[in-house]
Design a protein that fits this description.
alpha+beta; four-stranded antiparallel sheet; 8 helices; 10 strands; elongated
Length: 238
C-alpha cells in the first residue's frame, strides 16, 4: 500500500517504513505526526485519486529528528554596478518514518510515552523530630581534633631565600628596545657605546650613566626616564 501526500508545498510518494525528509514540522523526536493532505492512495490494483484530496485518508508517521540540509551559497551580481553579494542558507528539515496509511476516517495511534509515577510513590513525608531522635543511635562524645603540626621555622626561611634568588622569568627577552623610547636607531648607538643588553643597564653605576650620557649626548635622559628601574622590572618579568 502506498500514498501520495503533500507537505511543505511538495508532494511525496510514501509507503510504510519509508524514511522521509520534509520541511520542518513542529514537534520533538518520538512524536506522532499526521499528514492529512493525501492526494492518492494505492492498494495493489486499486488506486483512489483525490479531488483534490482523498476523503478519510491520513498518513501517520513518527518524528525521528530535527535536522538541516546542506548549505547552499547564493551569489548576486549586477553588471557595471560594483554590486556583489554572497549569502549562505541551510534549510531546516524534519526526518519522519512513515508508520501507517489509514483510510475510511481512521485516526493514527498516539505515541506511547512512559506514564509518570504516582505522587504517593515519589513524595516522601519527612519524619518528625521525635521519630528522628528515636531512630538515631546514641553517639559517643566527639574527640577533640588535634591541631595540625606547624612547619619548622627553618623551612620557611629556606623558602623565602629561594624566592629571593629566583632566576628571571622564562619568557624574558634581553632586548634594549624594550626600554621606553628606544628604537632600532638608538639601539645601534647604544651598541657602539658598548651597551647591548638590559642586564648591563640594570647594573649601571653613576660613572656608567655619565659616560653613556656624554657619548650619546643624552642630556640626562637615562636618569629622567629611569632606565635602570625599567630594566630591572623587565628582567623580573613585570
Amino acid at each position: 500500500m502506498y500514498a501520495v501526500i503533500k507537505t511543505g508545498g511538495k508532494q511525496y510518494r510514501v509507503a510504510a517504513n519509508d524514511l522521509l525528509r520534509v520541511e520542518k514540522l513542529a514537534g520533538e523526536s518520538g512524536d506522532t505526526v499526521a499528514f492529512s493532505e493525501v492526494l492518492l492512495v494505492g492498494d495493489g490494483d486499486k488506486v483512489t485519486v483525490g479531488a483534490p484530496l482523498v476523503d478519510g485518508a491520513t498518513v501517520a508517521g513518527e518524528l525521528v529528528e530535527q535536522t538541516r540540509a546542506r548549505k547552499i551559497v547564493v551569489f548576486k551580481k549586477r553588471r557595471r554596478k560594483a554590486y556583489r553579494r554572497t549569502a549562505g542558507h541551510r534549510q531546516e528539515l524534519s526526518v519522519v518514518r512513515i508508520t501507517e496509511i489509514l483510510t475510511g476516517g481512521a485516526k493514527p495511534k498516539a505515541a506511547k510515552k512512559a506514564a509518570p509515577e504516582p505522587a504517593a510513590r515519589t513524595a516522601k513525608v519527612p519524619p518528625t523530630a521525635a521519630e528522628a531522635a528515636a531512630k538515631e543511635p546514641a553517639k559517643a562524645p566527639a574527640k577533640p581534633k588535634k591541631a595540625a603540626p606547624k612547619a619548622p621555622a627553618k623551612e620557611t626561611a629556606k623558602e623565602t631565600a629561594k624566592e629571593s634568588t629566583r632566576a628571571p622569568a622564562a619568557e624574558f627577552k634581553d632586548d634594549v628596545k624594550l626600554i621606553a623610547g628606544v628604537g632600532p636607531a638608538l639601539e645601534k648607538k647604544l651598541a657602539a657605546a658598548g651597551v647591548t643588553s638590559l642586564t648591563q643597564i640594570a647594573k649601571f653605576t653613576k660613572a656608567d650613566i655619565e659616560r653613556v650620557d656624554a657619548e650619546l649626548n643624552f642630556k640626562g635622559r637615562i636618569e629622567r626616564d629611569d632606565w635602570i628601574s625599567q630594566a630591572k622590572k623587565l628582567i623580573a618579568g613585570k
